[in-house]
Amino acid sequence: MKRLVIFDLDGTLLNSLEDLRAAANYALKCFGYPGHDLEAYRYFVGNGITKLIERALPTNARATENIMQVRKVFIDYYQAHKTMLTRPYPGICELLYLLRQRGIILAVASNKFHEATCDLIHFYFGDNTFDVVSGQKEGIPAKPHPDMLEHILKVTGVKKEEALYVGDSEVDMHTATNCGIESVGVTWGFRPRKELESSGANHIADQPADIINWLKES
């Protein structure tokens, strides 16, 4: 029986790609670099902000100092504009409500920097939906390293076999595998079904209701 469901944030709970693109393209433009279209950002995101900026920069502009300068502008812009276009995916709020009604512990594990992760969860879902919210922090490895999930398991006191991790990318599926917990790949996010299947997803969900139905069956 599952007692804990851990969610990725971007591409799983929230469709945030437009705001991420706007912030990244703004930061790139400030330094004279070309921006990118929405489809490109589907593959730039997933490994944290630093990696996002590195991927968005031209190959010859990826020195660490330069990445960090562009990253700072990105963060300042994103923090001021991160809710302009971002929205929960259809059916997500209903899914979270039903999971809470069943007494399931809910958590978030995101490679987005911790402050923005907490802000977005508060803005879109309030303070009483998730029991644990973890974003990327200095000194803690980003996903697919399992530390973030291990921390959530420790805080909640839930065994690995009682937990489920839900995400939309190869990074998420590998994170679940590295931690030794069951995974659900969602097809409404940033990456295609083929990537989820090839990266070891235990289950595939085409809509949020699939998750609650699978939990009922299990």
List the keywords.
single chain; 218 residues; alpha/beta; 6-stranded parallel beta sheet; two-stranded antiparallel sheet; globular
Q: Would you write up a description of this structure?
A:
There is one protein chain. The chain has helices spanning 17-30, 38-44, 49-56, 64-81, 92-101, 114-125, 147-156, 170-179, 193-198, 208-217; strands spanning 4-7, 14-15, 87-88, 105-113, 132-136, 163-167, 182-186, 203-205. It is of the alpha/beta class. The strands form two sheets. Strands 5-4-1-6-7-8 form a six-stranded parallel sheet, with helices on both faces. A two-stranded antiparallel sheet has the order 2-3. The chain is globular, with a radius of gyration of 17 Å. 41% of the residues are buried. The mean pLDDT is 96.
What sequence of helices (H) and strands (E) makes up the elements? EEHHHHEHEHEHEHEHEH
Backbone CA Rg: 17 Å
Calculate the terminal CA-CA distance, rounded to whole Å.
7 Å
Give start-end ranges of low-pLDDT stretches. Answer: none
The gross shape turns out to be: globular
Enumerate how many helices there are, as a single number. Answer: 10
Strand order across the biggest sheet?
5-4-1-6-7-8
The percent range for strand residues is 15-25%
The assigned structural class equals alpha/beta
